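Reviewer comment 2.1 asked that we show a complete input and output for one of the modelled complexes. We chose the NAP case, as it is the one discussed in the main text.
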Amino acid sequence: MSGTIALITRLADEPEAQYLAALRGAMPDETILPLREMSIAQRLDSTIAIVANPDPANLASLPRLTWVQSLWAGVEQLIACWPQDGPPIVRLVDPEMSRTMAEAVLAWTYYLQRDMPVYRAQQNNREWHQHTYRKPSNIEVGILGLGTLGAQASQRLLDAGFRVSGWSRTPKQVDGVTTYHGHEGLDDMLAAADIVVCLAPLTPETRALIDKTRIARMKAGCALINFARGPVVVEADLLDALGRGQISHAVLDVFDVEPLPTHSPLWLHPNVTVLPHISAPTDVHTAASVIAANITQFRNTGQVPESVNFARGY
Ligand code: NAP
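Response of the prediction step:
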């Protein structure tokens, strides 16, 4: 083993201290220090950094850096500020996060399938009106992104009896899931889905993916769940579609600007459910175990864990 592991974050003191304690607990034989506490000698010798929203300028003080472990699963912000010859970025792939996200997808799919927003609104008006029950087997959930999170969410939905389709960049075969890929595939999937769930990473290709043209191809009255990143959906086009009933309801956990500004029309929109980026938070302890396993593998073999493909953007 060699070299201090640098922790570089722009988190508030308390969450940073929690991550530090969990990481030290998971790797008792390693020395892990916030960058600001590292000596010059420790910086010159360090080969691994663990980061959350780091200031890229800080990374320049670690000349031997071989790879960087992100505390987040989504790394678009990191990629955007990464030097062209920067070290590989390993994103967080944590089974506990996949489980939590699959649970969130199922929970909010049920919320829409059981018409909860409609009944809540009726209650506000003391209105007694029974809507026709829709079975899961009559509802098609289309998942944008069949990666780590999308694949597990699909399985959870299938187990609950929903019809599931999924869209990815490369062709995929998943038991029980109708799969699509590429631009034409996307149009076909959108046309068939009753609920569209966005779980694709934000990349140059997926930015503004769900815009007015794509929304026009969706089934009239379908619902949208965005658990990926705000800019994948064009907010103004979504608002317009909600106003016309083309989209009946949107459950949004992610936004162009977070926290969602108080003046945003999304807050009080009757057909929008606003969540404060909570669909699958990083679990400090399981994340620390996953990261410890990555670092142990690197120490033992010299092999950097699977890293982000900069050209692809995820
Ligand atoms: P992942 O394993 O990298 O999977 C990404 C999936 O999206 C893959 O199936 C990929 O296709 C597909 N994809 C990417 N670009 C595409 C394109 N241009 N066209 C079609 N499909 C495309 O990522 P993940 O771990 O599932 O995470 C997905 C995203 O969830 C993260 O990037 C993050 O933004 C978000 N997230 C949100 C929260 C939250 O709390 N709201 C928590 C965690 C993560 P291929 O399979 O062909 O490569």
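The chain has a mean pLDDT of 97. We note this here for comparison with the apo prediction described in Section 3.2.
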